[in-house]
Amino acid sequence: MEQIEKRNKIRKFIDEVIAEVKKVAWPKKRELYGATAVVLTVVILLSFGIGVVDAILGQLMQFIITLGT
């Protein structure tokens, strides 16, 4: 009896998931490509910016360390 109830609950859950997935407003291919381009551009720019800040701080730390010796 418990097995049947468990299966029914699982089946109901799966049916609800399928119903919700059908309600999703999936983006069009063009929107998807545009959003992907924006994300990649931001990631590249942030990576470059973080790299520049890291290099500057590394040089600053090296300068501070050499002052102490």
Oligomer: single chain
How far apart are the termini? 79 Å
Tell me the count of domains: 1
Shape: elongated
Report mean pLDDT, rounded to a whole number: 95
> Helicity level, as a percent range?
over 70%
Strand tally, please?
A: 0
Structural class: mainly alpha
Largest sheet: none
List key phrases describing it:
mainly alpha, 90% helix, elongated
Question: Your description of this structure?
Answer:
This protein has one domain (2-68). Helix content is 90%, strand content 0%. It is built from two helices and no strands. It has helices spanning 2-23, 29-68. It is elongated and about 80 Å long. 0% of the residues are buried.
In short:
The protein has helices at 2-23, 29-68.
Secondary structure topology:
Blueprint: H1 2-23, H2 29-68
